Amino acid sequence: MERSAIEKIVELGAPNIHIEGDYTYSDKELKVIQEPKVRTLPFHTLSGLVYALLAEHENFVAPLLVSVTDEDTVTVHSAISSIDRMREVPYTVNAELIDIPFNRQLDYETMMITLKSKFVETPELLELVKLLGTITEENSAQLSDDGFTQTVVVRKGIALKDNKAVNPIVKLKPYRTFNEVEQPESQFLLRLSEGGNVALYEADGGAWKLQARRNVADYLKSALADLIEAGRVIVVE
Q1: Quick check: is 133 in a domain?
Q2: 50: pLDDT confidence band, cut at 50, 70 and 90?
Q3: How many distinct structural domains can be found in the chain?
């Protein structure tokens, strides 16, 4: 009989199991037959996830682990199956966020539209909009002549009417997480430059992301309070 045929027969034979102390050994690789898993259902709102969990939580191995992965993502895992030691991922939630042009120069008109459409209206935002509303593009020359010497002063760039002082640090609430929760406030560095350009540079080191995750977790804990109390759901961040 050929060697390959002998090896095939051995391969098809039952595995030899050997127990040594706390360890179990086999001369063949054993594979666990996995339980069927549901296809992951995607959502884009936290409210959609809450409705699904309230309606279908009994269909999954409890407790369901609702993980706030980051400021715009939530993932739901079932408990570990006792059969194949695997988890189901029945739901995911990904926020549909708008692009906000931070850390780059924008013309005055684009910045005004951005502030009014992509930020929560707060007193500080209204003050910033009012301030930027006083911007004028300046391009002038002043002549001074005393009969002996002549001096020309050229002024070019942007200016603020009434000589208003510009606070370089502003606190704003851009839309950067799920709409159902309070948007985290963070600091921005305001820069004005020639040509009427304005820029907002992020200046909080990313601390807003931690606050956003907490806000999302708090929303879910409140909306799923009954399931949490019953031990059916755990919310983590």
Answers
A1: yes
A2: very high
A3: 1
> What DSSP string runs through the chain?
--HHHHHHHHHHSPPPEEEETTEEEESS-----PPP-PPPEEESSHHHHHHHHHHHGGGSPSSEEEEEEETTEEEEEPPPPTTTS-----EEEE--PPP---SS-EEHHHHHHHHHHHB---HHHHHHHHHHTTEEEEEEEEEEE-SS-EEEEEEEEEEEGGG----SEEEE-B--S-TTSPPPPEEEEEEEETTTEEEEEE-STTHHHHHHHHHHHHHHHHHTHHHHHTTSEEEE-
Q: Is the pLDDT of residue 159 over 60?
A: no
167-190 pLDDT tens trace: 789 999 999 999 999 999 999 999
In a domain, 201, yes or no: yes
| Domain of 147, in residue numbers | 106-205
